[in-house]
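Structure first, sequence second, as always.
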């Protein structure tokens, strides 16, 4: 989400005549786009702001700005505690950045944190740097008010862009040669533009170019409609991957979290998804150590992991956020217990991911080649439709190409394979052309 927002900011600033530099020392303006979901994300930002302070000493004219959710949450406090910060700008105020920079250049520290009910940056074409995969924000804000979550306070009320404007953006990306779009929202499947729901939007996006993959994140279990499941099943180029955060396996905790579903609803939803999309891969989020969570609640979470057999999970220690409802429930689970539960969740999920990945050894899977592997310059990497990363030796493969790979080995996070012969690649290419 922040990467997508940063592309909007880059577009606004480029239109105002600014250019990007990778040399921090030489920058006239430095912005950091922030997350406030957990305390440790904010701590990292304070660390970064400390680094920027040193650069500003060397280059006293440098302006420093904090963007995003932390700006929205801390507002004036951030200005007061960080005396070298010149601008504090929340997620709905980015259009004002050029004007705020102008003001700051004359010595006026600026703060803009008004939340909007309508701002969705619909008319701004994000300045993208990757030429293969693109994010598209299709809705902003969240109305769910999970009791632990700061997002409704930092990103405001839910609002959706029009289907037509999103379709135009996908068409533009397809014409530029992009091969994958991810439709983004905090609560993306509650998208509604007064005429179309999220299933309509996914179908419209998928029909633009059959060689372009369409993904989406993050969906809420409450808004996972039968129509959406059907739309994913029916469209070849909508990826068979769903990130569906469950948070906990205990009904008591889910109720305290205000997640609006119970364990049984979640399990039957997973059964329904798997019946319609047999090859689907599922990932989820967990919070360990929510207020009052006891050993029985934790065991129920481990049971859900065993039953559902997720392909992957993001697991977080509960982090109390000021002004949320759960802030008032205290933070009673001791740190060492939180950590132990977190590790048990991670270990169990790792075992399952490893087993599932090893079952793929010997199979031929199609990937979209994304670029060089971060771990080895001799390897490329790409993702399967089910969002699994495959690393393979470079050869003469092109980035942005669909490629069949044979999986040779796997760990819990990555598959390692080899690119198949050109003949099979051609077959793959002609299949894609036939789809088109
Ligand atoms: N809108 C998305 C994601 C929101 S934030 C959704 O509802 O799924 C991403 C994840 O951060 C959440 O799914 C949750 O697992 C975690 N999270 C949010 N607030 C948290 C908190 N206060 N402490 C720990 N984890 C939190
Ligand atoms: Fe936060 Fe819940 Fe909204 Fe997700 S659905 S952003 S967890 S309030």
């Amino acid at each position: 989400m922040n990467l997508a927002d940063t592309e909007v900011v880059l577009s606004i600033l480029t239109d105002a005549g600014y250019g990007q530099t990778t040399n921090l020392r030489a920058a006239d303006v430095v912005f950091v786009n922030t997350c406030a979901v957990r305390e440790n994300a904010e701590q990292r930002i304070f660390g970064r702001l400390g680094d920027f302070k040193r650069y500003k000493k060397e280059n006293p004219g440098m302006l420093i700005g904090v963007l995003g959710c932390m700006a929205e949450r801390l507002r004036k406090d951030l200005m007061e505690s960080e005396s070298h910060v010149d601008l504090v700008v929340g997620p709905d105020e980015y259009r004002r950045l050029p004007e705020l920079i102008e003001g700051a250049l004359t010595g006026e520290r600026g703060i803009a944190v008004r939340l909007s009910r309508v701002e969705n940056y619909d008319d701004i074409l994000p300045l993208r740097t990757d030429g293969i995969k693109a994010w598209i924000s299709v809705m902003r804000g969240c109305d769910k008010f999970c009791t632990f979550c700061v997002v409704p306070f930092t990103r405001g009320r839910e609002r959706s862009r029009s289907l037509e404007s999103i379709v135009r953006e996908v068409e533009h990306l397809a014409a530029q040669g992009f091969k994958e779009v991810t439709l983004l929202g905090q609560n993306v499947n509650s998208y509604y533009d007064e005429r179309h729901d999220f299933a309509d939007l996914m179908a419209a996006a998928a029909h633009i170019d059959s060689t372009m993959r369409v993904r989406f994140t993050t969906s809420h279990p409450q808004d996972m409609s039968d129509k959406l499941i059907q739309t994913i099943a029916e469209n070849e180029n909508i990826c068979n991957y769903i990130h569906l955060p469950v948070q906990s396996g205990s009904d008591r905790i889910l109720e305290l979290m205000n997640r609006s579903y119970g364990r049984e609803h979640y399990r039957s939803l997973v059964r329904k998804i798997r019946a319609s999309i047999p090859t689907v891969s599922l990932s989820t989020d967990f919070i360990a150590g929510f207020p009052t969570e006891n050993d029985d609640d934790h065991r129920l979470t481990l049971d859900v992991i065993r039953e559902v057999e997720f392909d992957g999970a993001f697991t977080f220690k509960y982090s109390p956020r000021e002004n949320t409802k759960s802030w008032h429930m205290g933070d009673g689970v001791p740190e060492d217990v939180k950590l132990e539960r977190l590790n048990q969740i991670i270990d169990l999920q790792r075992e399952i991911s490893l087993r599932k990945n090893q079952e793929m050894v010997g199979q031929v899977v199609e990937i979209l080649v994304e670029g060089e592997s971060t771990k080895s310059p001799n390897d490329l990497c790409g993702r399967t439709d089910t969002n699994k990363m495959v690393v393979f030796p470079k050869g003469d493969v092109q980035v942005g190409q669909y490629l069949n790979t044979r999986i040779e080995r796997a760990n819990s996070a990555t598959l390692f394979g080899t690119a198949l012969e050109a003949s099979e690649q051609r077959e793959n290419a002609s299949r894609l052309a036939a789809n088109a």
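Margin note: The domain at 364-435 is CATH 2.40.50.140 (OB fold (Dihydrolipoamide Acetyltransferase, E2P)).
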